[in-house]
Amino acid sequence: MSSANSTKKSSAHPFRWSGFDHQMMARALRQAKKGEFTARPNPMVGCVITQGEVLVGEGGHEQFGLAHAEVNALAMAGEKAQGATCYVTLEPCAHRGKTGPCAEALIKAGVGKVVAAMLDPNPKVAGKGFAILQDAGIKVEYGLLEAQARAINPGFISAMERGRPWVICKLAMSLDGRTALANGQSKWITGSQARADVQKLRARQDAIVTGVGTLLADNPSLTVRRQDTLYQLDDWFDKAQSKGFCLPARILLDRGGRADFNAKLFARHSTSDRVIWVTDGAKCLETEGAEHSAQFRHVEQWQTPDSLLRLLERLTVNGFNQLMIEAGHKLSGAFFSAGLVDELVVYMASKLMGDKAKGLMALEVLNMDEAPELKLSDMRLLGDDIKLTYRVS
User: Fold this and answer.
1) Is the pTM of this model over 0.90?
2) 171: part of which helix (H) or strand (E)?
3) Catalytic residue among 36, 58, 62, 70
């Protein structure tokens, strides 16, 4: 299976770093997490500024369109940034987008040295930020905790290096590997803690993808919502909302045009809402929604592409770096069989559903040596359920 190498080993370099350097880059990585739910589609980036071994400034890129990590850290450091060392998790940008180039901000502040975890993975800009800094007489080093820096931004790196999003497939199953009863009933397989965790997982995505079969069977909303439990005491949802959190787009694959526009998935929840209806059926959004045109302004109709890979490539062009599949065993199996799943997240419930219930994924495996091998990257207990995270190689 295809997979973006988000844990690639650090590039060979001549630099040597102290324990303090490692501590400061680790701190910068924690600062990057401030943008966990709100920096997308930008990467999460953190920055720490020190004078000798004294911390004078730190910050993260907390919201798309607002100040980058370096600018926030420089604002805290003030005049103490003069001659300081800047630790940043990604090469400072050299282009002007919604904000000015961070490389120029560092030069203006008079920093003496920049240590970056990794180069910008965009081949069109990689190294340009470093070159601007070096031309201004600032010492540049890179590669410190590179694997960790890549791991927090798999979607951004995948889009830059492969031209397609990082794809997570999320499934819930019983202890005997079943996802729905024979009659299609699947609510609720897992308990409240697992369902609350799913909300956080959704919140990290640029888009959620499902199929028309799931739409007709379950009528899911696929939104991110508060789901408090006795064990879910952190206030991540409120913090994300306060930073301008935007719902992930909802993408419906509906080749035959069987969707009902009264389904929850098409409902509008905010001005930033976005629904993409991928179909080649006879239905047309303009005619079907003519009498309720305002209701469907957030819905785009795309023609079904000739392959799932072409769909992913188009999504990348449209700014989607990371997405999650929440669908039935057929669509999940189709993405997996096409080698387009990078990460598999399975919530295993403490239930038995019997051999008449539906299986986890529609895969055709005729020989054991053809069975896909997964790498377990994380396992945790959520109430009586278990969350298993696998990397697909």
Assistant:
1) no
2) strand 166-173
3) 70
